[in-house]
Amino acid sequence: MTHIYIGGLKFEIIRENIHEYGLMRFDERQIVISSNVTDPSVCITTLRHEMIHAALEIAGISHMRRYDEEPIVRAIENIFFPAWDAINNQTLNISPP
Predict the structure, then answer these.
(1) How many CB atoms lie within 10 A of CB 30?
(2) C-beta neighbour count of 63 within 10 angstroms
(3) What does pTM read for this prediction?
(4) Whole-angstrom Cα distance, residue 42 to residue 73?
(5) Helices marked H in the chain — which ranges?
(6) What is the mean pLDDT of the chain?
(7) DSSP state, 25?
(8) Nearest Cα residue to 1 out of 15, 18, 20, 19
(9) CA–CA separation, 83 vs 73, rounded Å?
(10) Using CA atoms, how far apart are residues 55 and 72, in angstroms rounded to an integer?
């Protein structure tokens, strides 16, 4: 897999030699997973984590003066989970019921 759509924006998924497990570069529309992370379950968890960062950025939450719970929950429900379901179904080759 080389990319994922989150909130209608296409993010490239790349591997790089970075110190963190992963990071999200919003302006470049990239999610970076460290090439040092080799455990598949850690890669998936890291990807999910960085996808949440992207969803919160798309929703504008990162620009708020304070973080209210409801907008964060709505961003995760309406932006992150649809993107996560798409990547999860593609990876596992499972169709939703």
Answers:
(1) 17
(2) 8
(3) 0.73
(4) 24
(5) 40-58, 69-75, 81-92
(6) 84
(7) E
(8) 15
(9) 15
(10) 9
C-beta contacts of 77-81 below 8 A and 24+ residues apart: 79/6, 79/7, 79/55, 80/6, 80/51, 80/52, 80/55
Structure tokens at 81: 């989970």
Tokens found for residue 31: 């999610």
Q: What single letter denotes the amino acid at residue 48?
A: R
Q: Which one, of 61, 66, 90, 87, lies nearest residue 76 by Cα?
A: 61
| Rounded CA separation 59/53 (Å) | 10
SS3 of residue 51 by DSSP: helix
pLDDT mean values, one per 10 residues, the chain (97 residues): 91 95 95 93 86 87 73 80 80 49
